[in-house]
Each structure stands twice: as C-alpha cells, then as structure tokens.
Design goal:
Elements lengths: L34 H38 L8 H4 L9 H7 L16 E5 L5 H8 L6 E11 L3 E4 L6 H9 L4 E2 L2 E4 L3 H5 L2 H18 L3 E5 L1 H6 L6 H19 L2 E2 L4 E2 L1 E6 L14 H7 L5 E4 L16 H12 L7 H4 L2 E6 L2 E5 L9 E5 L1 H11 L4 E3 L4 E7 L5 E5 L3 H14 L2 E5 L13
Parallel strand pairs: 1-2, 1-17, 2-4, 2-5, 5-6, 6-9, 9-10, 10-11, 11-17
Antiparallel strand pairs: 2-3, 7-8, 12-13, 12-16, 14-15, 15-16
C-alpha cells in the first residue's frame, strides 16, 4: 500500500490464470420476412424486455432485502440505486456501466453497512478528497496517505507538506468520521527496533505529530517492509517488531482528545498469508491476539492477488474467505470477538493485463483506475465475462498493436459479494482507494 505499490508475484499453484476460450455471448436471433417470423420475434423482444427490465431488477431488490434481514436487520428505505436499477448482477454490459456509473441515491448520507469502513485517500489522486467529502457519512475512518518515517542523518517523520487542514475541517463538519493519516516506516528496521531509545524516539515523533495536527490516531504500515528486510524471519527481531506496534498503540491510547475523551486509535496494516499454510514471517492469529488490546483495527490487504507475470483476478472471493478463516483460526473467545477488528480490504482499482503471446512469452500491463477504465469501455465496447471461481467481472480487447488485453475491474456485483463476506464475519471494510473507483460503488456501503 505504499505509494509505489509492491506487486505480489506468485507461483502457478497459488494463482488462477485467465481461462482462454470462454464462450462468446449468445442471444442473436435470425429475423425472417414472414409475418409469423415477425410475430415470433416480437414475442421474444417482449420476453427479453420483461426479463431484463422488470424481473431481474425485482429479483435484485428481493435478494438485497433478504441479505439485510439475515445479516443486519431490516434495510433502510429507499434501496440503493444499484439494486433499484438491477445493476447488481453477473450479466452486465458496457452500456450499463457507462450510463450508470455516476448515478447514486440523492441521499448520500444513507449507510447500508453497519460495521466500520476505512477509506484511503492519496495525494496523487485528488478525486479521492472530493469523494471523501461527498460520501462522508459512508465512512467511519479516513486515512490520507501523507507520512513516511525515514532515516537521513537522523530519524525524521516526513509528510506534513501533504496535509490539507481545510479538507480535514470539511470532512469533520459533515459527520463523525475519524481522520487517521497513514504512516509508513521506511527507515531500516534495525535502526528502529534494536535500540530502546530509537523505538521511543519514533513513537514520540508519531504521537507528537498527532497531537499537534489534531488527528484521531494513525494507520501504520510496516509489516511488508520488515518482511522485505528479513526481520520477520528472525524470532528475536520479530518479537521486537510486535513489541514496537504494541508500545505505539499504548502510547496513542494514553492520549485523550475531544469533549468525549476518546483515545487516539492505531490501525495496523497487515498482508494476507502467501500460502494456505502460515509461514513464520506471516501475520497470523497469534499476532492478532497479542495486539488486540493495543490495536483498534487491522487493515487487511486482500487485493493484489495477481500480477502482470501471472494475470488474473484482483481479489478472488474464495481467497478472501480462506484468509479470514486462517487469521481467525484458534482465536480465543470465538472468531467474532476478534473479527470486528479486521477491515477486509476491497480494491477500487483494477488491472489491465497485456497477455503473453505463445509459450515463454512475457505479459505486461498494470493498475487501471475508474477514468481510464471508462475510456477503454467507450473505445472498445467489449462484452463482459463473469469469472465464477473468483466472483469477478473481466473483459478482453485488442490494442492498436493487436495485442490481447484482459481487464479485471470491480463491478457492483463483485463489490456487493465482498461486502456481504465482511458482514458475514462481523468485520469492517478498508477501501484502497476511493479516488480510483466509480461513484456508484459507494451506493453499496
């Protein structure tokens, strides 16, 4: 989740490749000149109209109501635009996306998800700041990506130049959302963890910044960096790493703010395990239990499942489910007692992969955000496909060089299923990041 996002490269056994040769869309009818044929064709058109414009939207509304009755009590009225318009479905078209992506309920303050929602905002994608203001009531936590802890001649916390105080005031005026900027520990971990004086210095830098800037706490990202340095393979250093996070959380909790005397919060970023079995360097259930008192939430990065070297879905639903099972296995007091602190990651970006040509060929491509995604749809007008295993939509197209691309990007259906997955665990949601998505995604929260 750092600015230059790391891409996970996996083995064939851990990733699903795109299935080439999927069946093309069907449903084109031949029209004869005879009156009988015309009448038959008209009946078919009527049937199609009734099916797609009356029956499917009605079913969507019923399914949505059942979900909410089962998961979180009666849904508020009115239903989200996406369900009213029958857009939460597998058989979507590019026209529906182009025509419907900016349409949401007039009442953008309505919340349909009763657990915490953390949304990331980045300085290099200014649209996110506007989304945060417009849909303010959808979020419980906002994390602007502003800070890095670095080592020059000494340890320094860089990033105050990114801070937008006017924006913070505006989002707070519109609701009760908490602002917790992200801090990435980029300094070599040996210089932070091995000496008690240095650890205390880093914690003082972070807590002082929170006090001076009137934050509600921070989101800390360090685990993936520590893994890259090999820290987590060393039992002693791994223990010091956990101690550091624990100490930072306690320091933030000791600071009360506001009239209601709420303490500052610490949300910690964690990566999903690399395989079905936890490795020593993976963040696991024992770590969650140990940090549960010091950490207010765990931002779980359940995305970046595929890469240009191994193209495929962004975040397969069965992978998210198995990750939650793995992290909550054996937790004391039952899974629900810890699950509410996990923020299941949902990506608002996609990937445009250039597929390899022939045996031994190399692919390419990378992330795609909403505006670029809409441009590709408008230019190529591709048919969508629903990948049943991952529960994601994708489409394919040929670029100007006649190279084949596969685009995986979130859809109302894929997001709705992931929201329900989080709800089924009693878990929260973290979104990376709101400036990369489409407006109608927010209708599902």
């Amino acid at each position: 989740m750092a600015k230059k996002r790391e891409r996970r490269i996996s083995t064939d056994s851990d990733r699903r490749r795109i299935r080439n040769g999927s069946d093309p869309p069907t449903g084109t009818d031949r029209i004869d000149n005879s009156a009988e044929s015309n009448a038959t064709h008209e009946r078919k058109l009527i049937f199609i109209f009734v099916l797609f414009f009356i029956v499917i939207p009605a079913i969507s509304v019923i399914v949505y109501s059942i979900w909410f009755d089962q998961r979180s009590g009666k849904a508020e009225s009115p239903l989200p635009f996406l369900y009213q318009g029958g857009l939460v479905k597998t058989d979507i078209s590019y026209e529906e996306v182009l025509n419907g992506n900016s349409k949401v309920l007039e009442d953008v303050t309505r919340r349909g998800f009763n657990y915490p929602v953390l949304a990331y905002v980045t300085p290099w994608n200014a649209e996110g700041y506007e989304v945060a203001k417009r849909f303010n009531s959808k979020f419980t936590h906002l994390s602007p990506v502003w800070y890095d802890l670095k080592r020059d001649t000494k340890l320094v916390l860089e990033g105050r130049h990114n801070v937008d105080k006017d924006w913070i005031s505006q989002v707070r005026e519109r609701g009760n959302v908490k602002v917790l900027p992200r801090v990435v520990l980029e300094a070599p971990p040996g210089q932070v963890l091995k000496k008690k004086k240095q650890r205390n210095n880093v914690i003082d830098l972070i807590v002082t910044e929170c006090k001076e800037m009137d934050y509600d706490g921070i989101v800390l990202e360090s685990w993936s960096i520590w893994a890259a340095y090999g820290v987590l393979h060393d039992p002693e250093l791994r223990n010091l790493a956990i101690q550091f996070v624990e100490q930072l959380g306690q320091a933030l909790h000791s600071v009360e703010r506001g009239d209601n005397k709420q303490h500052m919060e610490l949300i910690y970023v964690i990566r999903p395990p690399y395989s079905e079995k936890l490795e020593k360097h993976d963040f696991g259930p024992e770590d969650i239990k140990r940090l549960s008192n010091a950490v207010d939430g765990f931002s779980l990065m359940t995305y970046d499942f595929s890469s240009p070297q191994n193209p495929g879905p962004n975040a397969p639903l069965n992978w998210i489910h198995s990750t939650m099972q793995l992290l909550l296995e054996g937790t004391k007091g039952g899974s629900q007692s810890v699950a509410h602190k996990i923020f299941v990651g949902i990506n608002f970006y996609g990937n445009d992969f250039e597929l390899p040509e022939g045996v031994g060929g190399t692919g390419g491509g990378g992330p795609i955000i909403g505006s670029s995604y809409l441009s590709v749809l408008e230019k190529h007008k591709p048919p969508f496909r629903w990948e049943e295993n991952s529960k994601e939509h994708y489409f394919m197209y040929l670029d100007n060089s006649k190279k084949t691309h596969a685009v995986f990007y979130p859809s109302p259906m894929s997001i709705a299923l992931r929201v329900e997955e989080a709800r089924s665990w009693g878990a929260g949601i973290s979104i990376w990041e709101i400036g990369q998505g489409l407006d109608y995604f927010m209708d599902l929260f």
